[in-house]
Amino acid sequence: MDDRTEEVTLGKAPVIEPGHTFATVTDKISAIVLTRPTSVGWLFGFGVAFLVTMMMLYAIGYLFVRGVGIWGVNVPVGWGFAIVNFVWWIGIGHAGTLISAILLLLRQSWRNSINRFAEAMTLFAVACAGLFPVLHLGRPWLAYWLFPYPNTMKYWPQFRSPLVWDVFAVSTYFTISLMFWFIGLIPDLATLRDRSGNRAAQIIYGILAMGWRGSARHWARYETAYLLLAGLATPLVLSVHTVVSFDFAISIVPGWHTTIFPPYFVAGAIYSGFAMVLVLAIPIRKFYGLEDFITERHLQNSAKVMLATGLIVAYGYAIEAFMGWYSGNRYDAFLLWNRLHGPYHFWYWMLLVCNIGIPQVLWIRKLRSSPFWLFLISMDILVGMWLERFVIVVVSLHRDFLNSSWGMYYPTRWDWMTYIGTIGMFLALMFLFLRILPAISIFEMRTLLPQAEVKPE
Amino acid sequence: MKRLAIYGMMAEFDTTSDLVAAARRTHEAGYRKIDAYSPFPVEGLADEIGFRKNAVPLIVLIGGVLGAISGYLLQYWISAVSYPINVGGRPYNSWPAFIVVTFETTILFAGLAAVLGMLALNGLPMPYHPVFNVPRFAFATRDRFFLIIFSSDPKYDAATTRTFLESLGPRSISEVPS
Questions:
Q1: pTM (2 d.p.)
Q2: ipTM
Q3: Residues A210, B46: C-beta atoms closer than 8 Å
Q4: For A229-250, what is each residue's pLDDT tens digit?
Q5: Can you point out the beta strands (E) in chain B?
Q6: How far is A169 from chain B, CA to nearest CA, in Å?
Q7: B148: enclosing H helix or E strand
Q8: Which residues have CB under 8 Å from A233's CB, separation 6+?
Q9: CB-based contact B143 A22, cutoff 8 Å
């Protein structure tokens, strides 16, 4: 028995409840898509999310007509909500890749039941994130100018700019995440093709499954490709938020120009990402009765990851504050004072409460294993991480070197509609995903069963 | 090439261990054109059916190297040849600034090579395949394990191959029409 099965069968809280067979795992997960009727709750949830998405499209449509002047951005705060939301969404996406790639390389088999929807979450979060810089361009219909392509203007992107690095980092991240997710889906799409009784569904799943038949040769190449993709995605995910942090760190604005940014952005990304995983997983396991597959163990482990990354984030804040004092640089010192006592001080203190204060209750095992409390704490972390980006972007920009150029930033209703609208779009996509694709990786769940072991003759 | 009327003989098993043992004995019995099907990757199964040469890592390596070279050359050519911009006399080929994009294109090309290479070597997409003609094969993506001996194998003979497969103790045996 290798350590994998040992963990499954002898561990404290199992990753999969005992008594399941290949058939029950397959049927239970595929039934959510194939046989379960569309519930009123799903229709209601999707309907609300869809309406919110429509609100976002309205806000974007108006933006196309009137331009970015409808937003609250202006000199000196030129980045505002667009960049706050961009960084927030990209960060949320990181947990999906962490779960699917890094935990795969570390042979954490508990990841198998949450990696599929965490990867979907990554894709949808990156899709929401990608909207913001494009909308912020001023002329969003010319977004393709960001890519190097031969053009009649004979002009090319400036590759020494972190903003161009960001284009490459985010588009590569989205492409690799999409492929990773789709490759993982192929065997399960074949299962749906073979299990479905509906001709149209058979054809659609059949096309998507590309004729997968589970041949041993195919599996061998598949596993190699999957492992290599995980190996490639691991440095990629760490690099994406590093590059996002370069957008700030390469500049000379006080509060941005610091070397702690890359590691602390990555930790913050994973922090908020796991919070979003729990915000999604807790209702999903409840409404679809998946407590057998997403067990207390998953909740506990995610909580521990949040606790650890939260402490790294806290260290980042501490170092920022320390450097403000220790560097002797008057602008850095002023930034610290401005955060603590300036016009936005309430939000800085809220950030400390949400991101550092409240999550410390995760040290208590009882709260760590309670879905209800974990849900609330995760929501709190999502709010806190949004505030962190708000403080970094807005508070740093609104008062920099010259007090003649100081100003305030007030988001408009269009800022809020776009931001809340992307949350609606994210949820609408999640609802659709739950309904038409298996939310838990069926074939990887089969490998977790003790029966999957080959017994020596 | 003449198309054979029978594609092969297929045996169905209940457990992973049975399938791996059966694959080993089939290979030992001298059958070479064989394949095994399982609803999830089974450790060591590919070895038992005689699959050794996995070209995926090499393809990924080539993809990564191509990605690194083309990413760097793209930036070099743009920044130093096609559209040079003099910023305070700094060198046009400012390589430290090109590392990030070079890294991204390396990952992108290697990842594309992994996925497309794996699909191409597996011959996918292939919507039709003779094994799908066996009705019970629908369970190959649920909880059953299959072993097939292709009729193109020199040792293949409808009667003796069936007797051999029966000796492996399968749950069922079916002839696969092509």
A1: 0.89
A2: 0.90
A3: no
A4: 999 999 998 899 999 999 999 9
A5: 6-13, 34-37, 145-150, 172-177
A6: 6
A7: strand B145-150
A8: A97, A100, A101, A176, A177, A180, B107, B111
A9: yes
